[in-house]
Amino acid sequence: MNSGRGKGAKPGLGSSEKDDDTPFDGSGLKLKTVKTRRELNEVEFAAILRVTEKYLLSKPSPKIAPFNFDWLLGLHREMFGSIWSWAGEIRSTEKNIGVSPNIIAAELGVIAMEVDKRHHETGDLVFATAAEFHHRAVWVHPFEDGNGRWARLLANVWLMQHDQPATLWPATDLRDTESPIRDDYIAAIKAADSRNYGPLIDLHKKFSV
CA 10 to CA 77: how far, in whole Å? Predict the structure, then answer.
């Protein structure tokens, strides 16, 4: 799968713990009691944990996780739908990262089509495909927010579905500047922009459980 990113773009990273007690843009927020970034992080973490347990406590069947177009959108909705009204909906606005909104659906379709070709893979090929899907999902950046967390979860679902261990990333949110692997993660995503998936594969394997 070919990929690219606009000049100076970064993979959806950038917030800091220092901002935890500051207000944030609450457009589309369903939970009106959430006022600060810290409170938002807490409710998002709890929601994502529930979805993670659904898919990763045991091997997810193709019926539960078919990796088709609707499921790709639905996974994001499962993760954030209790919090954000736009969860699972393709963004309509241009960002400084990600593809143009008018081709997002087609790019997600590419991922879904590639899945059909790769279900037979085993061993290291599964890690390579997980890294490729992970990067492709980040690159497309289909949603208003939560793209990185969504991409990492779908890569883990792919790994588990193909009898490989999931990746336990050593931070709840790699946008956090305090994350111990943030720089390595950004470098791996940038390397994958040039179709060098090795660093991202290495990270998946390094933190596999």
Answer: 23
Going from the C-alpha of 151 to that of each of 21, 22, 23, 144, 145, the distances in angstroms are: 27, 26, 26, 13, 11
List residues bridging with 208 in a β-sheet: 167
User: Which DSSP letter does residue 175 get?
Assistant: T
- pTM score, two decimals? 0.86
Cα-Cα end-to-end distance for the chain: 27
Pick the CATH number of 38-206 from 3.40.50.1220, 1.10.3290.10, 3.40.50.720, 1.10.580.10: 1.10.3290.10
**What stretch of H or E contains 151?**
helix 147-161
pLDDT band at 25 (very low <50, low <70, confident <90, very high): confident
**Whole-number Å distance between alpha carbons of 65 and 130:** 14
**3-state helix vs strand vs coil in the chain, percent to 5:** 50, 0, 45
pLDDT of amino acid 15: 37
Is the predicted pLDDT of residue 49 greater than 90, yes or no? yes
Task: Give yes or no for residue 193 having a pLDDT over 90.
Answer: yes
